[in-house]
Design goal:
It is elongated, with a radius of gyration of 29 Å. The protein has 10 helices and 42 strands. By secondary structure, the protein is mostly beta strands. It has a domain at 396-716: paralog of FGE (formylglycine-generating enzyme), CATH 3.90.1580.10. The strands form 10 sheets. It has a 6-stranded antiparallel β-sheet with strand order 1-6-5-4-3-2, with no helix packed on it. Strands 19, 20, 21, 22 and 23 form a 5-stranded antiparallel β-sheet that branches. It starts with a strand and ends in a 7-residue tail after the last helix. It is 11% helix and 34% strand. The longest helix has 15 residues, at 535-549.
């Protein structure tokens, strides 16, 4: 487990001031993320969480010891385009967990976050509603109530009515539907709050109508929503925070709208015990457009922390709930950065920031850095700052579970049992074919006299290779697009249902961002080879397919590729030395019309592999090292593999439709290059696509022997994906 620690112990603040969690875990939604707090490991200390909307990944900052927060690597949920997040006691009355929902993905998941060292697999909620957009954890009374919090779920894509509320009873982490209730409009910004210090927690959310919003505060003590307080006539797109700004036990709502200058304050009043209403509204102009507003809790009076609209500045305000907020300090983001979110804690607050990307995209990316500020808005040499764990793809948490599935499903354990097989990708009607390659020894490289020989092809050396299956054909668009476009793949499951466990496991593997252009470049799709993916993209496809099938797939090592391509021969081409025969076996410069062709149209090599030379060049697992063979030559090698230590270059083999004869020799080696992304307009460049390598594809390998999960992880997650 990788982690980042930062200590508040040098701030001169008593440790006890940091230990306790807030009464209610509050979640704030920003443009890109949800930010919240809770006691996730049950140690009585406040922890933090940031959920990325686009990817569904979340990062946890555990306060493992007094005054020290430890951020652990992101944890995937498999739910993309997240629309709602809640924090509550779903598995244990003494610790918090996460609930995450995505309307477009049609998913609601709960995730146990109690172990800082290991991620638990998220559990899907058994929902029948469509478009679950808002989720809240709250105690629902009535028959069957338990010490755990329950689930309040809003949805927006149903039929008659489109918007509904669904209540779920939580019984030891098992969720049973209690009721479906109609709504007039979608619910957003759900939290649980107490209107008075010490009063029971209530459900609060905004009912977002076409002409504006209404804040609803509800009690669920009876088992059904009962209105406690409403605040109508909110501007469309309104958000809120709540605090005790007047020093009274009764709270105040502060409403704001992203992009507007003003905040509106509505005090909670209690004319008689348990009967609540809101007082007259007061609006205050902060002088610049507001992004998000946070409450900083102090023993006597609360303060407001405001991130302004573009994120370049944040302001700390003294506020008594009656007079205009008084500016105490204006904070500026570092050059080239913007503030993205904040997390109040007992002795101050964290401001999160991201690097701006003004050349090619609008705005900023996910939170990348943190800086701690005291309650007075100050920093000093002892206040912690630094980088948050990256959201760059690792998928490390899925590897042990996929590996377990592979090992438990092993049926063929000896080379003598290996046979060709055709497999259907679960949940689809797409097939692929694998052929067995028996283990053996061969001479790798080319002799000095071979026409077109390059220095990196020598010296000749003996290599022993263990048995494996190899794809009879290059991976086609039919196969790869299932991985590229998860929404389309999920629709196929309705026609070809699979186990929920398999869907959940494969969905947790990170998939490519949608390309900005047609990646076939007009050359054809059905039964044509997939192209222009990075080595990282090919590796992740192998991980995804392994999760789907329970077979261990990866890219071939460079030695495996040449061993299979030669198919027991020692000549320049597997069919001999006569290059005039090459058109019978390969698509290349002379016969391709400068575009790839459908797979399997040419004769195979002696071991049944089609297009192993030409059509598209093929990724290998190895880092490219021009003098790699010199290290192996003296004593030979057994299953050599040069593991990745840098983004470029990696090995590509076999030549392509765009190459002359010399690049189709069995021994020729090619190195990837960053120029293959020259026309990629993104900044940073995509980790998924090579816009200028329309000649590169890959084929699968399935080793007979399954290695330990640590080696499997390195095959799927090189760790050097970014430019």
């Amino acid at each position: 487990m990788k982690c980042k620690k930062f200590s508040l112990g040098l701030l001169g603040v008593a440790a006890a001031g940091l230990v306790c969690t807030s009464a209610s875990a509050f979640v704030t939604e920003t443009e890109r993320e949800f930010v919240g707090d809770g006691d996730f490991d049950g140690d009585g200390r406040q922890d933090l969480v940031i959920v990325d909307k686009a990817s569904g990944k979340f990062r946890l900052g555990y306060q493992l010891t007094n005054s020290v927060y430890t951020w652990v690597d992101f944890r995937p949920t498999g739910a993309k385009d997240v629309t709602g997040v809640a924090v509550g006691r779903l598995f244990d009355p003494k610790r918090d967990a996460l609930a995450i929902t995505s309307a477009d993905a049609g998913q609601t998941l709960v995730a146990d976050a109690s172990d800082p060292a290991a991620a638990a697999a998220p559990i899907p909620l058994p929902i029948s509603v469509l478009g679950p957009n808002t989720v809240l954890t709250v105690d629902i009374g009535g028959p069957g109530n338990t010490p755990l919090e329950d689930i309040y779920l809003g949805s927006i894509y149903n039929n008659d009515p489109a918007t509904q509320t669904t209540l779920f009873r939580d019984d030891a982490g098992k969720f049973t539907k209690l009721a479906d209730l109609p709504l007039k409009a979608p619910l957003v910004r759900a939290n649980k709050i107490a209107l008075r210090v010490g009063a029971p927690e209530l459900a609060v959310m905004i009912e977002a109508g076409d002409d504006g919003g209404t804040l609803r505060v509800e009690s669920l003590a009876s088992g059904k929503p009962q209105a406690v307080l409403t605040v109508p006539d909110l501007a469309s797109g309104s958000d809120y925070t709540i605090g005790s700004f007047r020093g009274s036990p009764l709270r105040e709502f502060v409403f704001y709208k992203r992009g507007a200058n003003a905040v509106q304050v509505r005090p909670v009043e209690e004319p008689s015990t348990g009967n609540f209403r809101v007082g007259a509204a007061a609006s205050f102009d902060l002088g610049q457009p507001v992004g998000n507003v946070f409450t900083l809790v102090e023993p006597k009076n609360n303060k407001l922390l405001v991130i302004f609209d573009k994120g370049e500045r944040a302001g700390l305000f003294k506020f008594d709930g009656a007079k205009a907020p008084e500016s105490l300090r204006l904070l500026s983001a570092a050059e080239g950065e913007v503030f993205t979110a904040a997390a109040p804690v007992a002795t101050g607050f964290f401001l999160f920031s991201s690097f701006t990307n003004t050349k090619f995209s609008a705005g900023f990316d996910y939170s990348d850095r943190y800086q701690f500020y005291t309650l007075s808005g100050e920093t000093n040499a002892n206040t912690p700052f630094g980088k948050l764990p990256s959201l760059a793809d690792t998928d490390f948490t899925t590897v042990p579970e996929i590996h377990k599935r592979i090992v438990e499903g092993l049926k063929i354990k000896h080379e003598s049992e290996m046979q060709p097989y055709t497999n259907m990708i679960p949940g689809t009607d797409v097939k692929y074919v694998m052929v067995p390659i028996k283990g053996g020894e061969f001479v790798m490289g080319s002799p000095e006299g071979e026409a077109g020989r390059k220095p990196d092809e020598g010296p000749l050396h003996k290599v022993k290779v263990s048995p494996f299956w190899m794809g009879k054909f290059e991976v086609s668009w039919d196969e790869y697009e299932l991985f590229m476009y998860p929404d389309d793949e999920k629709k196929l499951r309705e026609q070809f249902p699979t186990e929920a466990y398999v869907d959940q496991l494969s969905d947790a593997v990170t998939r490519p961002s949608k390309p900005y252009a047609d990646m076939t470049f007009g050359m054809g799709k059905r039964n044509f080879p997939a192209i222009s993916m990075t080595q990282h993209g090919a590796n992740k496809y192998c991980q995804w397919l392994s999760a789907k099938t329970g077979h261990y797939y990866r890219l071939p090592t460079e030695a495996e590729w040449e061993y299979a391509a030669r198919a027991g021969t020692k000549t320049t081409f597997f069919f001999g030395e006569d290059e005039s025969k090459l058109p019978e076996y390969a698509w290349f410069e002379q016969n391709s019309d400068f575009k790839y062709s459908k797979i399997g149209r040419k004769k195979p090599n002696p071991w049944g592999l089609h297009d192993i030379l030409g059509n598209v060049a093929e990724w290998c697992l190895d880092q490219y090292e021009p003098k790699a063979y010199e290290q192996c030559a003296p004593a030979g090698a057994v299953d050599p593999w040069i593991k990745s230590t840098k983004t470029y270059p990696h090995v590509v083999r076999g030549g392509s439709y765009d190459d002359e004869v010399g690049w189709l020799r069995c021994a020729v080696r090619r190195a990837s290059d960053k120029s293959w992304k020259m026309r990629d307009p993104q900044l940073p460049k995509s980790v998924w696509y090579f816009t200028d390598a329309q000649f590169v594809g890959f084929r699968l390998v399935r080793p007979l022997a399954v290695p330990p999960p640590e080696e499997v992880q390195k095959c799927w997650i090189s760790g050097v994906e970014k430019d």
